[in-house]
Amino acid sequence: MPRVFNTAGPCLAEKHYMIAAGRRLSQLRELIDGEHYFVIHAPRQTGKTTLLRNLSRELTAEGRYAALTVSLESFTDPDLPQIIPQILAELQYSARQQLPEHCQPPNPDAFAQTPHIALKTYLSAWCASIDRPLVVFFDEVDAIPGALLISVLRQLRDGYTSRPAPFPRSVALVGLRDVRDYKIQVRPESATLGTASPFNIKTRSLSLRNFTSHEVAELLEQHTRETQQEFALDAVKEIYRQTLGQPWLVNALASQLTTSYDALVPDRTVSVTRDKVLQAREILIERRDTHLDSLVDKLREDRVRRTLEPILVGALAVGSTYDDDFSYVRDLGLVAVRDGMRVIANPIYQEIIPRVLTHQVQTAIPDQPAWFVAADGTLDMRKLIDGFIEFWRRHGEVLLRGMPYQEAAPHLAFMAYLQRIVNAGGRVEREFAIGTGRADLVVEFGGREDVIELKIMRGKYTLPDGLVQVARYAKRLGRDVGYLVIFDPNADTPVEDRGEVEELEQDGIRIVLVRA
Hints:
six-stranded mixed β-sheet
């Protein structure tokens, strides 16, 4: 059976196109050979489990180690006396699946009566009973709660410090977050654990990076070699541009294009073009598969809101918890630092996040997209601006009070209105970054691109900075007109009376200014 692009579960080389995850963490062998305990953290669907399972198989097959991967994802009950024995049973089950007979662990029942030391003594007895060093990768370790997590970490630490007594040669804790962030999960910031850090034995904290542009091309080339179906060069570049190498997104786009049951280009004699990539992107965004839904479910969390809101409006981020909040949301995979700027992780997430936050608003807008399409098939931007002003006058006060992202509410309201209109057959590209003071929107409709910049009135520099920025962006697109919408939360004029429109000139570009 031909291989496919995988979007569900770990990759298997015989079934799926794949880039060996070990290439993205080349130092693992050195850490294991050096008898180290370490952490691997990365967002979901980046290839962690694929990496662990393949590496476990390789290490065991070489005969130097007994290596296995065990998932702790199911152990969410905080009842330590009940759950620790179940973890031992899971270790035994995983060993039966992954290790040869002479590397099997002892029966866990004899250890279950002392849960506070059961994991330590079980691993110790196991190591004493086999003829090769044991290596254990604990996957999804940050799924386990509070006291249970502390107990697991402490027992591993106690076993580690007792070496050279029998204990695993190397252990990796694998999850979304670095072990330094687990403290937030198990105790308030003001509290203390009363002892040394339960996992201060870790040597390194590693993060699994995304695919490079070359690796994306290599993954797609595997499909071309096996089926002779080619990806046009601009299609390959667009897949990387939209995903910035996030492994699940790369595979999801490629699957929707070629190997899914409803593939856009099922005919292997037809090349995949950039237009098809953009079509697949829209399907992915609208469909919001399980992985994407698991991310957007986080948007209501206060830590996520405090991180994303400044990015959406281009504001400077302040607050004593911001760095910790940002680290948490980065570990979820929603944000990144790029070129020194804190940004949403990739263009697909840039599109999904505002759509999710504005979905209810968008579906309540009565205006019909066809009203705003000019005779030549392009978007009548002035009519769109006038339509938004009328909508904002009628509903702005309610939206400002009711939207969960209060500071970003004006931006999100405009984006909801714009998306409702552009859904008729166009596309919106969004650019957000902390500290820019703006959100840039590029509307592609009927073969023409228009730039709209949204800003919050912050002082006397807001307007002149906005004019320069819009003019610069319009020139980059080859346009002689741009649009600047400035929201003033402190204006004395009621929302129902706002919406003054004027035309200004900046650097040879006509700027349509809206004061909302």
